[in-house]
Amino acid sequence: MGQLAIAFVTMTLGVLACAGYFYGSNALLDSIFPSKNRPAEVIARNLRIVNQVRPWLFLGPALLLLVFYLFYPVVQSAILSFYGRTGEEFVGFANYIWLFQSGEFLESFRNNMLWLIVVPTLSTFFGLIIATMTDRIWWGNIAKSLIFMPMAISFIGASIIWKFIYEYRSGGDEQIGLLNALVVFFGGEPQTWIQIPFWNNFFLMIILVWIQTGFAMVILSAALRGIPDETIEAAVLDGASGLQIFFRIMVPQIWGTIAVVWTTITILVLKVFDIVLAMTNGQWGTQVLANQMFSWLFQGGGDYGRSAVIALVIMALVVPIMVWNIKNANAEMEGR
Amino acid sequence: MANVKLTNVKKVYSNNVEVMRDINLDIKQGEFIVFVGPSGCGKSTLLRMISGLEDISSGTLEIDNQDVTQVPPSLRGVAMVFQSYALYPHMTVYDNMAFSLQIAKIDKKEVDAQVRRAAEMLQLTPYLDRLPKALSGGQRQRVAIGRAIVRRPKVFLFDEPLSNLDAALRVATRMEIANLKESMPDSTMIYVTHDQVEAMTLADRIVLLSAGNIEQVGSPLDLYANPENVFVAKFIGSPAMNVMPCIVETAGENTQIKVANTFSINTPIASPAGDSGKPGFFGVRPEDLALAQDGEPALLEGEVSFVESLGEATLLYITVPGLEEAVISKQQGTLQIQKGDTIRVTAVPEKLHLFNQDEQSYRCL
Amino acid sequence: MVTSNKGSALNLVVHATVLFLVIMWTIPTAGLFISSIRDKDQLSVSGWWTALSASEQQKVYRTAGAESEIQENGVYVLRGNLLEGGSGEVTKFGISSLKPEAFAPGQEAKSRRDVRFKVMENGDYEVISEKSFRRGVRIFYTAEIPPRFTLDNYRTVMSSEGLGQSFINSLTVTIPATVIPILIAAFAAYALAWMKFPGRALLIAGVVGLLVVPLQMSLIPLLTVYSKIGAFFGVDAKGYVGIWLAHTGFGLPLAIYLLRNYISGLPGEIIESARVDGASDFVIFRKIILPLSFPALASFAIFQFLWVWNDLLIATVFLGNTEESLVLTGRLRELLGSRGGNWEILTASAFITIIIPLCVFFGLQRYLVRGLLAGSVK
User: Fold this and answer.
1) Which part of the chain is the ABC transmembrane type-1 domain (chain A) (predicted)?
2) In terms of Cα–Cα distance, which of B52, B85, B55, B60 is closest to B155?
3) Which residue of A64, A223, B43, C64 is surrounded by the most CB atoms within 10 Å?
């Protein structure tokens, strides 16, 4: 119970401190530059000053945190990548050279590319199919809710769930993993799925597809509903078949949303490491960049230089998406 | 209450686009002024500059003889009624009206008295505890007005307040605003609309704007009878005035013009001697064009290309050879004229309008 | 949707396909849940899908020896129950390993040494011998064991595997790490949406850019700084404040982005009206923006809650791996390593870690969806 009480007190203090800052700083500003009971010119001048200062009071904590937790680390990682394992001695491009000669890196890079192609494609594909079909049946919302559910499950929890499905029992023992049980039922030989070279990657990817399809489905479903009924009715009058309507009328109209879904999942794929860590820890040819970086950071005392290099590679992979995002956001702002 | 004075007011956006050009305007205390003009003319921008929601790039704005150019909105003593009403959706009608007074830390009893007085005035008392979403469009509009009233502002600003209402409600609310003005004869009101009927019925004076300029300021009838230029002539009145190109044949005390190389027209309008032989524009309102009796000389003559029967009136579209646009004539009642008939129209000389080649009226030169 | 005139055959296909997909998507979780409440002996020998059917088990039972024999009418008798009080039904029994199914219940079996065996369907047995039993005898039997569901697995993991402690840790991390970023982001989002100041567009672009920065980038530099700060103040570098701020920092770009989208979509005239009414930006924020943004705030709160609760990486790095500081995900990962074969432990633990997010998810799904849409659909 003592632990609970301490937890509760720390929680409350943390939240109060944050709220206190906003109240306090704004009250302070208003009392230094009052806007009541003063001559009009003074009030006008004070209000102008207040209006110039206040945005920074509002933004202050956010900016500080963003700079410290995201911006500064990017710069610092870039610098660290030129230093040795403790981050003290300068080693030039040694880490980069090591990286591109390391077989493990090539393997994880290849795997990452596979993930990047397979997971967004399958998630978006299933998401689109399910969104389309659930929109036309009466229990669609229940179906959606159930398919969306894995979103709430942690990667590590999902890994256990799926590890249980891939579970292998040797010899004549009864299989308790669903997949092997099915294989045996249809007369096949049970397999240790997560150890089959190359194909095991796909068994890991399925987990992320399982999680992300719900996300794609929800967003695409909203986009599909946003399509004006008139365009579909017009297509029906023009004699288009169901599939033609879907591919030539509906899909083109939600192309923008599909792109957003795709890129969001892509970014997630680049960051994902929990699944690999929990399922195989990169063994049997399933290493990916994020997990490789994690293991260089902690295992065997850690090597800051090398893991920084891997982090930079991940960063480099998201830069195009970042530029595209910023461009979109800017275009949108100008449209306002 | 207060007067409002704009001197050389300009508005330039950061990308150097000039949206208000050198506005000079003097609004007297207790006047009901309507800014009217086509969309994009800057009428709302001008109103927002007066309210303080938009900065004034250069020039000065005085309210109640005090320079308020740099004063923030809340200290200008203005209240604004927005097009979308801008009611706070999470507050009751009462709280909506009390909000500004509560912020000013006014005594609770005083706030209550003010709110109830305004609610009484606008017949909102039964709705004080409701949320805006539970009100009809007209009631929301009244709450928005009530919110302005409780502040006892020096100047009321209305930004197209009726444009979200349906036609019937619009007429009713228009009357209410007119009554409101009557009950508060000392308050200055500035009202923005794109609807000329609202402008004509409500305004003491109309300010007609176009592309960031004031085209004309005057009473509604003045704008109707004596438009200073072609823009004003065409904007006020429905259907719009027929304006057609012409040649000034003889300038002088009475100007002689020729339309479409055929029709010579003698107008009782003076023009400077130097304008003889120059092009100009001739205007006549559809309702001023009467059918010419047999033997009576015709102003214009042409073939009827289209007949619109409105019931109480009939619009005749007359194709005059040599003129690009059809000339419209509005006749009372229904007529037995059909498409293809050739008709002759005429008008009393006093109702004719004549503009020089810069589209300025000769009457007002 | 234009669906009315489609043939019922097509409709049937749609229903069937969706049903199939839904089953595909729910079976993994269902399997986990069912397994976690099964008896651990059954769990390790049969698939969870057999949980409802009785399982047939072949077992060997060794009776007690001389110490519990009773002398009755000049013979020695051993009595007891093969199933040890558990429910089930003995279908066959035998007295030698070569023929474990030789007799039906109720029959009497006689061994070569004239020992008589009698086994009833409910598992009661009677072994009668002329001489005293020196040691227990073996009875082979086949029994139909009905499905057994139990919360024992949960009791085990909550008490002995440290899951209770981790549960509290997870809560202590998650709640402030959800509330703080909302507060900070809401203020920033309002400033970016409705306040005028130089550099606003640049800041918005910056936030959008930071949206995609991989967390992994931040770990090394932050660890270094954290340990320096820890050393400077003479405190442990790994603590709750550190992880709250880390989660806040990492959650901010999305929070600001989502909330700004929402807040800038609020009708501008309302805010202008408040300004004309004399409200300062702080008052506008408190009295107008916060109440009106409730749906967006709620949806981000759910996001952040799920994300922090389910996070493994940041917790491992900033809170550490020690026994008393592990959060649920970390504990789960550890169990996966140390108790990898003990499915009764793994399934119950996994279900404990996902139960809270699942409740949050099903309870507040409406807001979650709304938030997702605010972020992605224009």
Assistant:
1) 109-325
2) B52
3) B43
